[in-house]
Every structure is written in structure tokens, then in C-alpha cells.
Task: inverse folding
């Protein structure tokens, strides 16, 4: 309850009732609303090098002391300060060293501790979309140059803050992008700088597993998703061809775990796209493999044979919103 009230609203990572789908949908809604007002939306996807491994213990404890009880902070301090490591090489060992940075990998506390560590981010003119250590800055304006100027100013603020707390923004992995409906200026690129170094402009950046494009058609994302499902269908075909894995129920369970989960990731974001057929074709193939039927089998028959309604039926309520 304490953390729920403390963590900023822009942070959606590892919080109850907030998922990756919700965060991507929030960003897409922001971009779409800007397009309806004839505005360009510039975005910067800021990457941190080994974010959890570079958290400064002393700085973290200072911030924890402002939001948690003293005995809780002391317990966390003990768990952090008694982490030691040693390097083994051939038959030689190094001396033991204490870790001054980094959060325990796999710990249930680490995500919450990281959220507190970056909770006092500086105020920016750009809107922030944050999921754990995935940062996105977005701003809107009718003029391209104004979008660029605002993002560069806010990037300076963000980089200064992160560097002060020993986090390392990566200029080589961070990218910028811009969304608009002006086909005549489709190749216009943002010039965004990180510590004086220009970062790459990517017309198709990926945010939390969803590939974006200038006009939010989601063609590239659905094309990639269809390719992934096709690869999973190949595994399903191999399983269907074995003597021990040919039962329909086994195939259905496998298809739900491999094919359907991949196909429907962040479906509320792209469900209204005109390119959803790319994914549906692969899911139809999945049902054919489960039932052992030929490609020309009518889709309603496939759904009945697998006792599973067609996936496009799930999207109809989303498409009508």
C-alpha cells in the first residue's frame, strides 16, 4: 500500500492492475489523439545499460528512507551489503569483494526497489511512458522542429538525472521515432542527442514487444507476429507427426501455449488493424494441425472440431469500442 501511493503514475512496471498491454495501449492512444488534432508525435525510447545491475546501494537506501519505516530500510540494507562475489579462473581464486551496486537477480523485491530508485525523475514537457527500466518520452506539436527541440531539452534533463544516480543511458541502443500522417514527409527524421552523440532514428521502433510504424497500421508488427506463429506451427506439426504426441488434446494445449499466446499478445492495441488477417491465417493453420484436416476446411468446422471459438471472435468487442 505504501508503494502504491508513492510510485509515480507514469511507472507501470510490476504494479497491480497494470500490464505491458495497458502501457502500450496508453502510448498508442496518446499518438492517435495527436493525429486527430493534426499533430506530429515524436518519441524517444531510452535504453539503460544493465539497469538493475548498476543501481547504487547508497543512493537507493537514501531514497528508501524517505518512504519506508526505518526497520524495513535496515533489513533491506543488510540484504544488499552482505552480497559478495569471487572470481574463479582455472585453479586460482580472487579475493572476496563486496557489491556496491546492483539488485539481486530474480528477487521479488528488486522491481519495486528499482521503481523507488527512479521515482523522483525530473519533470519534463514530454509525457513519460515507463515500464520498469523501459523509458519512452513522447511529445506532440504541429511543427517537426518544435517536437525535436522539446525532446532534446527533455533528454538532457533525463540523462543528467540518470547519470547523477549512476545509471547509464546507452546512445547506441536508444532510438527516436516520429508518427504522423503526412506521406510527403514520410522520410523526415528526428535529430536527438544523448550526451552530444546523435541517437539512431528508427521508423519502426519496438516498445514492450510491439513494433510501431509511422501511421500506426501495425503491418510490420503483425507481419513479424505471423512469422513467429508460423515457426511455432512447424513445431506443432512435428509433434502431430509423432506416435506419442498425436492426441488432439495434447496438440490443442501446445497450440494455446505456443501459437495463441504469441498471436494475441497486446491484441487490444492492434485489434482494429486491417492487417490482422496475417495472424489469423497462421492460427487457422494451427487449428488444421490440431484436427488433422485440410486447408480448405471451413473455419466454423475447425472451431467446432477443436472446441475452441475462432480467435477473431475475441476481437469483435475490442473493434467495436
Result:
Amino acid at each position: 500500500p505504501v508503494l502504491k501511493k508513492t510510485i509515480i503514475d507514469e511507472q507501470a512496471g510490476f504494479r497491480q492492475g497494470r500490464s505491458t498491454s495497458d502501457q502500450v495501449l496508453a502510448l498508442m492512444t496518446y499518438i492517435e489523439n495527436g493525429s486527430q488534432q493534426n499533430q506530429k508525435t515524436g518519441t524517444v525510447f531510452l535504453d539503460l545499460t544493465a539497469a538493475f545491475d548498476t543501481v547504487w546501494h547508497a543512493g537507493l537506501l537514501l531514497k528508501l528512507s524517505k518512504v519506508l519505516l526505518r526497520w524495513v530500510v535496515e533489513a533491506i540494507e543488510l540484504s544488499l551489503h552482505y552480497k559478495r562475489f569471487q572470481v574463479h579462473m582455472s585453479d586460482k581464486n580472487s579475493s572476496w569483494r563486496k557489491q556496491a551496486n546492483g539488485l539481486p537477480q530474480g528477487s521479488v523485491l528488486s522491481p519495486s526497489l528499482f521503481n523507488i530508485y527512479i521515482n523522483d525523475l525530473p519533470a519534463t514537457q514530454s509525457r513519460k511512458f515507463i515500464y520498469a527500466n523501459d523509458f519512452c518520452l513522447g511529445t506532440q506539436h504541429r511543427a517537426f522542429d518544435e517536437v525535436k527541440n522539446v525532446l532534446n531539452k527533455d533528454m538532457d534533463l533525463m540523462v543528467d538525472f540518470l547519470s547523477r544516480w549512476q545509471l547509464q543511458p546507452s546512445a547506441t541502443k536508444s532510438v527516436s521515432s516520429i508518427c504522423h500522417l503526412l506521406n510527403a514527409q514520410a522520410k523526415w527524421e528526428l535529430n536527438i542527442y544523448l550526451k552530444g552523440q546523435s541517437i539512431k532514428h528508427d521508423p519502426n521502433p519496438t516498445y514492450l514487444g510491439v513494433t510501431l510504424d509511422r501511421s500506426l497500421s501495425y503491418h510490420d508488427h503483425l507481419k513479424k507476429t505471423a512469422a513467429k506463429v508460423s515457426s511455432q506451427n512447424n513445431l506443432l506439426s512435428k509433434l502431430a507427426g509423432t506416435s506419442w504426441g498425436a492426441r488432439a488434446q495434447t496438440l490443442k494445449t501446445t497450440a494455446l501455449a505456443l501459437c495463441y499466446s504469441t498471436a494475441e499478445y497486446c491484441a487490444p492495441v492492434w485489434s482494429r488493424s486491417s492487417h490482422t488477417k496475417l495472424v489469423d491465417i497462421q492460427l487457422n493453420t494451427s487449428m488444421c494441425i490440431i484436427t488433422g484436416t485440410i486447408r480448405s476446411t471451413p473455419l466454423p468446422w475447425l472451431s467446432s472440431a477443436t472446441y475452441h471459438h475462432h480467435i477473431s471472435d475475441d476481437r469483435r468487442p475490442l473493434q467495436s469500442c
